[in-house]
Write a structure and sequence with these properties.
single chain, about 425 residues, alpha+beta, Chloramphenicol Acetyltransferase, 5-stranded mixed β-sheet, about 35% helix
C-alpha cells in the first residue's frame, strides 16, 4: 500500500533529514504498566497505516513488518526538556515508523510524550492517538477499530471539483503558486546566511487558572466573539508592546480540515490542514473588546469561505516546493505568529487505575526562519499555553516579556478573578 505525498506533506518533509516534529505530552497520576503501554502502541500502529509507513521517493509506503514504535523510559528529567530534545531529533524517514514515545516515570506521576513527524499528522490526529493510548492503558482489550487504507486526494477533493472549470481553476492557481514561488526565491539570497540553529529553540509554558479561563470564556460570549479571536488580538497587542512596529501584524490560525471533509474522521491521522490569516492593525487607541468585535466578522467570513480548493490547486504546484522552502528558510520575515487553539479537550479525567492530572499544549517547530508559534488547549477548566520560538529569531527575554504582556492584557480586560497560574 502506498500513495504520493501531497504538497503540504512534501513541504513539511523538506529534505527528509531536517526535523519538523510535533510533540504532545500528558501527565498521568496513578498506576500504568510498561506491558500495557507497549501493547497500546502496538494497537495504534496496527490501526493506522501511516504509523507503519516510511517515505520512499516522495511516497508513503506502508510496510508489512515495520519496526515497533520506539519507547524510551527516563526518570530524572521533565517534559519540557524532553519536548525540546524531541523537536530537535530528526526521524529517519526511510524507516518506519515516524513516531516515538518517551515515558517520564517518577514516583508520583508519569508523563507520556508522543513525538511524530509533522508530515504524518495534524493536531486533531495527534490528539486522537493520545486518546487511544490512554483508553488502551485503561482497558488493553478495548477495540479501537481499524483503518485499512491511506487517505488520498480523491478523499479530500469532491468529484465535482476534479472536473470542468474547478479543475482548470486549480491548475491555473497552481501555476501562479509555482511561478510566484520561483520569483520570491530568486529575490532571496543565501549568501552569508545559515539555517536557524536548532540548539537555540526554547519553549515557554503557562496556564490560566479556572477563574481566569472561565472569565475569558464568559466575557467572549457576552461580547459575541470567539475566544480564538480575542486571543489573536491579545497576542498581537503583546507582540507590539515588546517589538514595536516589528510586532505581529498577522496571526495565522490553523483550522481543522475535518470540518470540511467528512472522509477525514476524528480518529484519522492526516497532516494536510486549512488555515486563515488575520491582519490585526495597530489600533491601540480603541478599547480592546471593540477591536475584537471589529475583527470577529472578518474571521467568521474567512472561515466560512474555507474549502479544499487551495489543497487541490497546490497539487499542481509540486515543483514550487524547493523555491518555497528557500524563501521560508532564508527570506526576511517579520514577527508574525502561528496561533492554534485546540479548544476544550474531550478526555475523561478518571480511569480505573489512574487519573489524567493535566494535558500540556503541543509543541511544534520546523526549519523555517520564523518559528513563532503559540498553542493552547483547555482541560479541567484551565487554559494551557506553549510558546515556541528560537533565540536567534526572537530573543528568549523578548518572548518572556511578550508572555508577561499577554497576561497583563488579559488581567486588564477581564473582570477581576483569582491570580493567573504560571507554571
Amino acid at each position: 500500500m502506498k500513495r504520493k505525498l501531497l504538497f503540504p506533506e512534501r513541504l513539511m518533509l523538506g529534505d527528509g533529514n531536517t526535523p519538523f516534529n510535533v510533540v504532545s505530552a500528558i501527565r498521568i497520576k496513578g498506576s500504568i504498566s510498561e506491558e500495557n503501554l507497549v501493547h497500546a502502541l502496538a494497537c495504534i500502529q496496527a490501526k493506522h497505516p501511516l504509523l507503519r509507513a516510511n517515505i520512499i521517493d516522495d511516497h508513503y509506503v506502508v510496510q508489512e513488518q515495520p519496526g515497533t514504535i520506539p519507547l524510551k523510559i527516563v526518570h530524572s528529567t521533565d517534559w519540557i526538556t524532553v519536548t525540546l530534545a524531541e523537536l530537535a531529533q530528526p526521524f529517519d524517514t526511510t524507516t518506519a515508523p515516524l513516531a516515538r514515545v518517551t515515558w517520564i516515570r517518577t514516583l508520583h506521576y508519569s508523563d507520556l510524550v508522543l513525538s511524530l513527524h509533522h508530515c504524518l499528522c495534524d493536531g486533531g490526529g495527534r490528539w486522537a492517538l493520545m486518546k487511544e493510548i490512554i483508553a488502551l492503558l485503561d482497558n488493553p482489550s478495548k477495540d479501537i477499530g481499524m483503518h485499512r487504507s491511506l487517505l488520498t486526494i480523491e478523499d479530500i477533493i469532491p468529484a465535482a471539483q476534479r472536473a470542468g472549470w474547478p479543475l482548470m481553476k486549480a491548475k491555473l492557481v497552481g501555476g501562479i503558486v509555482k511561478y510566484g514561488s520561483q520569483l520570491l526565491a530568486a529575490l532571496v539570497s543565501t549568501k552569508g546566511k545559515s539555517k536557524t540553529n536548532r540548539e537555540k529553540d526554547y519553549l515557554l509554558h503557562w496556564k490560566l487558572d479556572e477563574g481566569m479561563t472561565s472569565a475569558l470564556v464568559r466575557q467572549c460570549k457576552a461580547m459575541g466573539v470567539t475566544v480564538n479571536t480575542a486571543l489573536c488580538v491579545a497576542l498581537a497587542s503583546a507582540f507590539r508592546k515588546v517589538k514595536g512596529e516589528q510586532g505581529a501584524a498577522k496571526v495565522t490560525c490553523p483550522v481543522d480540515i475535518r470540518k470540511y471533509v467528512p472522509a477525514i474522521t476524528k480518529d484519522s491521522i492526516f497532516s494536510v490542514g486549512l488555515s486563515i490569516t488575520l491582519e490585526i492593525p495597530d489600533e491601540h487607541t480603541r478599547p480592546f473588546w471593540t477591536r475584537v468585535q471589529l475583527l470577529q466578522p472578518i474571521a467568521t467570513d474567512k472561515q466560512k469561505r474555507l474549502d479544499t480548493s487551495m489543497v487541490h490547486a497546490l497539487e499542481y504546484a509540486h515543483s514550487a516546493i524547493p523555491h518555497m522552502i528557500k524563501f521560508l528558510t532564508y527570506g526576511k520575515l517579520n514577527y508574525n505568529l502561528m496561533f492554534s487553539n485546540m479548544g476544550q479537550l474531550d478526555i475523561d479525567e478518571h480511569w480505573r487505575t489512574f487519573d489524567i492530572e493535566t494535558v500540556f499544549s503541543p509543541a511544534v517547530i520546523g526549519p523555517f526562519a520564523n518559528p513563532n508559534t503559540v498553542l493552547t488547549c483547555t482541560y479541567k477548566g484551565q487554559m494551557d499555553f506553549t510558546f515556541i520560538s528560537n533565540d536567534d529569531f526572537l530573543a528568549l527575554d523578548d518572548a518572556r516579556a511578550i508572555k508577561d504582556a499577554l497576561l497583563k492584557i488579559l488581567k486588564e480586560v477581564l473582570p477581576s478573578t483569582t491570580p493567573i497560574l504560571t507554571i
